[in-house]
Amino acid sequence: MTARIHEFLRTRDDDGPCLVVDRDVVRDNYLQFARSLPDTRVFYAVKANPAPELLALLAELGSCFDTASVQEMKLVLEAGATADRISFGNTIKKERDIARALELGVRLFAVDCEAEVEKIARAAELTGAQDIRVFCRILCDGAGAEWPLSRKFGCAPEMAVEVLEHAWRHGLDAYGVSFHVGSQQGNTQAWDQALAASAAIFRECAERGIRLSMVNLGGGFPTRYLKQIPAVEAYGQSIFEALSRHFGNRIPETIIEPGRGMVGNAGVIEAEVVLVSRKSRAEDEIRWVYLDIGKFGGLAETMDEAIRYAIRTPHDGEASTPCVLAGPTCDSADVMYERIPYDLPVSLSIGDKVLIEGTGAYTSTYAAVAFNGFPPLKSYVI
């Protein structure tokens, strides 16, 4: 937690759980990505945290933006970025949204099947838009990621060639390939296999007379929770070596889509202990600690206990005991850590404030709107 966040929380009016994000940390993260992958364009994943203040900061720094909807595009444009710095990275798009993106000036689109290509081609004909670039997302092994991605996005590498040729035959620019190695990826070598597959697609397309230009390396860059993580420089070096290994002297254009790695460590959630209890009078060491925030209030990534946040209390350093950590809603799924209980101080009691660190990404955007009547997570950017 930064000194700025500490001072903000010390003086704020207590109005329930809140997220506080320090812009200076985000600035430092962006510059670190830019230094570590100097020949790669940064497309910030807006879904991680779309706070207007953060988008304006990143636009000023020169970042591009990975968006998943027209609404995210509008937020980016309002923040001062131009449409040529926006990618429509969602592979599942309504045709009217594609047309609206084209009207806004966006020309870079993700696909993973021929049907999606055809939607873009029809929207292009409808709007008269030209110079539209598409890249095909391929399936990728997310081994090593704490938040692995499913088969929902991407196609088999051998199918990608057909998809890109389909785009080329429809008058679109078959621009390149993309993949995602899984969110919170702790293995710096995770990009190697996907880059090998990407290079093979480049070669096959070239044999068909289609010259690809770009590889979208996706996200996956981690933020620190409870475990140490490699430095961004280690990822940059590993990716560069893999690019050289698989593409030789003809290294393509590259882009990255950091989200968690850009804003995760910039945010802290302050929450309150609502209840501490046990489930039986028998000699049960496990206590239940209920906070005023849970899965539906912004901590959705505790699903399956995938992301284990660092939690700070006023009693750290005192004797601790295993606890089940749960949220306040009337839903039995609103339990964050039970399979692997979380050690918390024995002296932790009702009314204590706790700090949940590393929560700058995928918290305010995952927060439910008024489930059980609880208001959405308040968010402050300082």
From TrEMBL:
Its EC number is 4.1.1.17. Its cofactor is pyridoxal 5'-phosphate. The keyword Lyase applies. PROSITE patterns: ODR_DC_2_1. GO terms for biological process: putrescine biosynthetic process from arginine, via ornithine. Pfam families: Orn_Arg_deC_N (PF02784). Residues 26-263 form the Orn/DAP/Arg decarboxylase 2 N-terminal domain. GO terms for cellular component: cytoplasm. SUPFAM superfamilies: Alanine racemase C-terminal domain-like, PLP-binding barrel. Belongs to the Orn/Lys/Arg decarboxylase class-II family. The modification N6-(pyridoxal phosphate)lysine is found at K47. The active site is at C330 (proton donor). This is ornithine decarboxylase. It catalyses: L-ornithine + H(+) = putrescine + CO2. It comes from Saliniramus fredricksonii. It comes from the Bacteria. Keywords: Lyase, Pyridoxal phosphate. InterPro entries: Ala_racemase/Decarboxylase_C, De-COase2_N, De-COase2_pyr-phos_BS, Orn/DAP/Arg_de-COase, Orn_de-COase, PLP-binding_barrel. It is an enzyme of class 4 (lyase). GO terms for molecular function: ornithine decarboxylase activity. Pathway: Amine and polyamine biosynthesis; putrescine biosynthesis via L-ornithine pathway; putrescine from L-ornithine: step 1/1.
